[in-house]
């Protein structure tokens, strides 16, 4: 039959096609994976977590910050890459009925203080100036490493701020404010110095959306707990401790983050849905127009975790052992000069015996003349000219 | 009378020299009651030091003395203590001679009025006799030299003593009748501190009285003499101010001295009334209240002139007292000057009503000034209100003294012309009331 040979050829062709398709599919799978590997451009993660209020009744702000700290640490960011700024000490506050604890849920279910909290900026060190110096890197050389944000242009930075704020400002320590303009300029400095790859800015204060209104640097995504004109509310008071323990927005964010693990694929759009108005009373806002990637493609762990991309290879590499060009140069011996004694360098003798130049002031001659002429005139006017002949 | 005066001068100089040598001198020099920003010796030294360094002494609001003081102390700064002792002695001598002459005038006038039968018949006990008036000049000199206030001012080397000397010479010239010298010294006194301007009126009245020119607005000779005197005064003032310009070749001293006196920028506590008010006043009211307070000093001249035109010396005394109470930076040295005049009116003693209260107030306040200062500044257990309360009480005491003497004087004048036993038209006894 003449039809069977072409059928076999067709099957072979179909098989070849299928194989080709499979190969293409496999190749595209690798491609996909490769693409996924290089999807986000960051290689390290940093977190700057700031609580700006002091006093016992602002317990909840410290609890907010510590909750985010705890989540971020659990998801992999080490303490060396977290700058934690707490404006007041709640755990050891004399008014804390449960010392060395900071609870984030009523009935004391979750102690966010724990055993391994590393606070980098504490108490009065949390100032606007220090915060901006941390962000921009303009820090005095004596600052210890733990207080520095040593990010580079491949760092994804999470910045979380909480406290009391208003339309366009955030209050630090009840004595100063940072404005949204200052913050935007600080981020621009960071961009120009290549200090971040992508930045996620979360703020939980009243009228928080005003703080991200002024950003103008690329690759910034911002979330806020309330719009301009709205207050962010606290979640629940604990009657045993006597204060409100958390703010609503951060409470629900914490709840959301508790379900994230280092391998989850949850993306930013889910974070935007956290805490709708029914739960939060305020309307959370977000801003993504400066961000280059689609929030759909941004994983939560891109910012909250420190997922390392690891490539395993079985090849051996040989390091170049061409060290021939390196010569150690010894410094040429300089002519040894006589060591100078201190006293000889300083002309002390001259200084001691120097008399200060006296610039004496003398009344001008005209004045003296005029004065005495007047006095003599008055004298003779009173006592008569007839005395003149006794004088001359 | 020269011998007792010489003895008195010697005693005064001894007391002052002894105090200069003791450790109290530094303590007294620091006291704010004695040294005001206008008259403190530290500031004079500072100003002269600035001048030696080639800087205008008026830069920096430290030095508020006139250029003539600069000239005086430029040569005499090493002998400062001697200078101040001599000025005190000169003041005492000037007052002595002035009151001696004044007593003669008073006595003459009294004699005239008795002969003209202007006095009521039963006022023999009110007439001053030469016997009791004999020691008054000495008492005046004594009161001035031995007054603790004067001694403290001298020991503190406050330039208030120099102002007092010029004023005393002015009074001497006025009483001697020389309009020219009186105008010159008045110009000098005004040049030193602005307030003796108000002494123009009593001096004018005295000189008019001496020349027997009646004080009537229609009288031509009255206006002529007034204009002459005013012209002399103003010309001398202008000459002195212009001469001061030539000392430093700048008009800096005008805002530094007169601007300072009038606008009261320095609110260091003193025995006056200005500092506390202006320390707690809002900015936009301060101009208004400065004007009010300064007008208060000059305000009493015209009414007093109208009331006391027959008695210009008493007017002078009241005016000096008003100046030293209401001036912007008073010190106890100013108080000492008018207190020196009290023996002149010792015949008013029987009409004074508040002697005990007054002396208590003045003594207690003088004692409490350093106590409350210490409590306020050093111990920190009092505050400025305490010190100001004592200042207020001191000034109230002074005002009480002046008004008491004023009332007593008027009473005596009334009794002299109407008799000691006043009766109402229906024959019952009447009482004199000051309204």
UniProtKB/TrEMBL annotation, chain A:
Range of residues in the leader sequence: 1-29
Coiled coil stretches, renumbered: none
Oligomeric form and interacting partners: Heteropentamer. Part of the GPI-anchor transamidase complex, consisting of PIGK, PIGT, PIGS, PIGU and GAA1. Interacts with GPAA1. Interacts with PIGT; this interaction, via a disulfide link, stabilizes the expression of GAA1 and PIGK and links them to PIGS.
GO MF entries: GPI-anchor transamidase activity
Presence of keyword Membrane: yes
Cellular component GO terms held in the UniProt record: GPI-anchor transamidase complex
Alphabetized InterPro entries for the sequence: GPI_transamidase, Peptidase_C13
Family: Belongs to the peptidase C13 family.
Organism per entry: Rhinopomastus cyanomelas
Protein name from the UniProt record: GPI-anchor transamidase
GO BP, sorted A to Z: attachment of GPI anchor to protein; GPI anchor biosynthetic process; proteolysis
Transmembrane segments: 361-380
Pathway: Glycolipid biosynthesis; glycosylphosphatidylinositol-anchor biosynthesis
Active-site residue numbers: 164, 206
Record flagged with keyword Transmembrane: yes
Key words, A-Z: GPI-anchor biosynthesis, Membrane, Signal, Transmembrane, Transmembrane helix
UniProtKB/TrEMBL annotation, chain B:
Keyword field: Endoplasmic reticulum, GPI-anchor biosynthesis, Membrane, Signal, Transmembrane, Transmembrane helix
GO cellular-component term (any): GPI-anchor transamidase complex
Transmembrane feature ranges: 68-99, 166-187, 193-209, 221-247, 253-278, 285-306, 351-373, 385-407
InterPro entries with a match to the protein in the record: PIG-U
Signal peptide feature range: 1-17
A Pfam family matched in the record: PIG-U
Pathway entry: Glycolipid biosynthesis; glycosylphosphatidylinositol-anchor biosynthesis
Domain of life of the source: Eukaryota
GO biological process: attachment of GPI anchor to protein; GPI anchor biosynthetic process
Cellular localization per UniProt: Endoplasmic reticulum membrane
Membrane topology reported for the UniProt record: Multi-pass membrane protein
Family: Belongs to the PIGU family.
Protein name: PIGU protein
């Amino acid at each position: 039959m003449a039809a069977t040979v072409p059928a076999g050829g067709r099957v072979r062709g179909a098989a070849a096609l299928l194989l080709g398709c499979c190969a293409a599919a496999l190749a595209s799978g690798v491609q996909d994976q490769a693409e996924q590997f290089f999807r986000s451009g960051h290689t390290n993660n940093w977190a700057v977590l700031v609580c700006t209020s002091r006093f016992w009744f602002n317990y909840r702000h410290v609890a907010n910050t510590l909750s985010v700290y705890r989540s971020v640490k659990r998801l992999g960011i080490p303490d060396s890459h977290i700058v934690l700024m707490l404006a007041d000490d709640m755990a050891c506050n004399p008014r804390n009925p449960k010392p060395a604890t900071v609870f984030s849920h009523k009935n004391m279910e979750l102690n966010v203080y724990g055993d391994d909290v590393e606070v980098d900026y504490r108490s009065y060190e949390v100032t606007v100036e220090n915060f901006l110096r941390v962000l921009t890197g303009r820090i005095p050389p004596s600052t210890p490493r733990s207080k520095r944000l040593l990010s580079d242009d491949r760092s994804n930075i999470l910045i979380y701020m909480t406290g009391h704020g208003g339309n366009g400002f955030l209050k630090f320590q009840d004595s100063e404010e940072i404005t949204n303009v200052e913050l935007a300029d600080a981020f621009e400095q960071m961009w120009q110095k290549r200090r971040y790859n992508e930045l996620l800015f979360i703020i939980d204060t009243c009228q928080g959306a005003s703080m991200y209104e002024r950003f103008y640097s690329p690759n910034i995504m911002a979330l806020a707990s309330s719009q301009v004109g709205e207050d962010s509310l606290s979640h629940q008071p604990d009657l045993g401790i006597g204060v409100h323990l958390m703010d609503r927005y951060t409470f629900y964010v914490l709840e959301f983050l508790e379900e994230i693990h280092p391998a989850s694929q949850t993306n930013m759009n889910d974070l935007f849905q956290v805490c709708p108005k029914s739960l939060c009373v305020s309307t959370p806002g977000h801003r993504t127009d400066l961000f280059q990637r689609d929030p759909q493609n941004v994983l939560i762990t891109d910012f909250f975790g420190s997922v390392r991309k690891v490539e395993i290879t079985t090849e051996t590499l040989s390091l170049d052992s061409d060290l021939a060009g390196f010569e150690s140069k010894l410094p040429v011996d300089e002519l040894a000069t006589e060591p100078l004694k201190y006293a000889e360098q300083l002309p002390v003798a001259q200084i001691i015996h120097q008399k200060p130049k006296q610039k004496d002031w003398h009344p001008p001659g005209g004045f003296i003349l005029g004065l005495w002429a007047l006095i003599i005139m008055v004298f003779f006017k009173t006592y008569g000219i007839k005395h003149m002949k006794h004088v001359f | 009378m020269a011998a007792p005066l010489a003895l008195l001068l010697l005693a005064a100089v001894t007391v002052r020299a002894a105090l200069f040598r003791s450790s109290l001198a530094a303590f007294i020099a620091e006291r704010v009651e004695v040294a005001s920003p206008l008259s403190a010796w530290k500031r004079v030294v500072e100003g002269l030091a600035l001048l030696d360094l080639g800087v205008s002494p008026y830069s920096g609001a430290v030095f508020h003395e006139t250029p003539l003081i600069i000239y005086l102390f430029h040569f005499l700064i090493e002998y400062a203590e001697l200078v101040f002792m001599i000025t005190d002695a000169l003041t005492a001598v000037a007052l002595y001679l002035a009151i001696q002459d004044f007593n003669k005038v008073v006595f003459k006038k009294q004699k005239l009025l008795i002969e003209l039968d202007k006095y009521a018949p039963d006022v023999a006990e009110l007439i001053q006799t030469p016997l009791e008036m004999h020691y008054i000049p000495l008492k005046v000199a004594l009161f001035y030299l031995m007054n603790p206030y004067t001694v403290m001012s001298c020991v503190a080397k406050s330039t208030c003593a120099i102002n007092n000397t010029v004023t005393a010479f002015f009074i001497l010239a006025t009483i001697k009748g020389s309009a020219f010298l009186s105008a010159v010294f008045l110009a000098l006194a005004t040049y030193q501190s602005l307030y003796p301007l108000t002494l123009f009126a009593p001096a004018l009245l005295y000189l008019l009285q001496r020349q027997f020119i009646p004080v009537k607005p229609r009288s031509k000779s009255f206006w002529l003499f007034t204009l002459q005197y005013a012209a002399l005064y103003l010309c001398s003032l202008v000459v002195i101010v212009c001469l001061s310009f030539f000392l430093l070749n700048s008009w800096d001293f005008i805002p530094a001295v007169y601007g300072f006196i009038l606008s009261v920028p320095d609110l260091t506590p003193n025995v006056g009334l200005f500092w506390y008010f202006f320390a707690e006043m809002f900015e936009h009211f301060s101009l208004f209240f400065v004007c009010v307070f300064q007008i208060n000093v000059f305000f009493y001249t015209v009414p007093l002139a109208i009331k006391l035109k027959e008695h210009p010396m008493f007017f002078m005394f009241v005016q000096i007292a008003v100046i030293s109470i209401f001036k912007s930076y008073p010190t106890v040295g100013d108080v000492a000057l008018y207190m020196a005049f009290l023996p002149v009116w010792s015949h008013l003693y029987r009409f004074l009503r508040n002697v005990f209260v007054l002396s208590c107030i003045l003594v207690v306040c003088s004692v409490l000034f350093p106590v409350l200062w210490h409590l306020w500044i050093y111990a920190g257990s009092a505050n400025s209100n305490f010190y100001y309360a004592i200042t207020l009480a001191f000034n109230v005491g002074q005002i009480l003294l002046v008004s008491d003497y004023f009332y007593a004087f008027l009473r005596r004048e009334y009794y002299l012309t109407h008799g000691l036993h006043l009766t109402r038209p229906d024959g019952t006894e009447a009482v004199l009331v000051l309204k």
